[in-house]
Design goal:
With 229 residues, the chain is mainly alpha-helical. Helices cover 68% and strands 4% of the residues. The protein folds into two domains: 2-70 and 209-225, Arc Repressor Mutant, subunit A (Orthogonal Bundle); 72-201, GntR ligand-binding domain-like (Four Helix Bundle (Hemerythrin (Met), subunit A), Up-down Bundle), CATH 1.20.120.530. The chain has helices at 2-18, 30-37, 41-53, 72-96, 99-118, 121-138, 142-162, 170-181, 185-201, 215-218, and strands spanning 27-28, 57-60, 64-67. The chain has a three-stranded antiparallel sheet with strand order 1-3-2.
Length: 229
């Protein structure tokens, strides 16, 4: 039960970050979140540690936990590293893709399209990230996957800080997968790099942040969960 509660809180906070309800730099107050979910502080602390390991939250000693706030330079470095890793990963996958792996990627594209049709922004973004991670996984280099997992988490925060959440990846991903299927290394790499550059170009580094709601307002529906320890 305790693990289920932690997972529920983790998903809610991560979704709030992706949907820009929790803004970069905003403090996550243990007491408020615990009260909102009807739990003690213990599972909340576990969630903070998990989010910190994903670089979504920064824990500052004697001050507390804050939504990560990448600088402009850090944002640019994240996309630079994504281009390096994902270009190499897609080249590897072009050489080694199996039919079962292709089926997995094809299924993810179908799920992404369905999420967009439902207007499920969080679901679409999650599936989009899974598509990129699966390519890294299928590349055969475990370090590609580990590094990209962290970079994707940072991308969520960067988009919340500097971008607008407009998921328009289906067609890009379809073209990338088609090139992989044809084992066209050049086209697959070019399409991947174009996709990442287009995403980076949507960022507005001078964008002003809206005033965030309070934590209690953001997680108010979660109070229906009931009292838990």
């Amino acid at each position: 039960m305790a693990q289920e509660v932690e997972t529920e809180i983790y998903k809610a906070i991560k979704q709030a970050i992706i949907e820009q309800k929790l803004r970069p730099g905003m403090q996550l107050v243990e007491e408020v979140i615990a009260e909102s979910f009807g739990v003690s502080r213990t599972p909340v602390r576990g969630v903070f540690r998990r989010l910190a390991s994903e670089k979504l939250v920064s824990i500052i000693p004697y001050k507390g936990a804050f939504v990560a706030c990448p600088t402009v330079l850090e944002a640019m470095e994240v996309f630079e590293m994504r281009r390096v890793i994902e270009a190499a990963a897609v080249r590897n996958v072009c050489r080694t893709l199996t039919d079962p792996q292709y089926d997995v990627l094809k299924k993810l594209l179908a799920e992404e399209e369905e999420s967009q049709k439902r207007g499920d922004l969080f679901g679409a973004i999650q599936v989009t990230g899974d598509f990129h991670l699966r390519i890294a996984e299928f590349s055969g280099n475990s370090y590609f996957y580990r590094c990209l997992e962290e970079l994707l988490s940072l991308t969520y925060v960067i988009m919340a800080l500097y971008g607008e959440q407009k998921v328009k990846c289906c067609q890009d991903h379809e073209r990338i997968l088609a090139a992989i299927r044809e084992r066209d290394l050049g086209a697959a790499e070019r399409l991947t790099l174009e996709h990442l550059r287009e995403l980076e170009e949507t960022l507005d580094f001078g964008r002003a942040q809206d005033s965030p709601k309070s934590l209690a307002d953001i997680f108010r529906p979660e109070r229906l969960i009931g009292s838990r320890e």
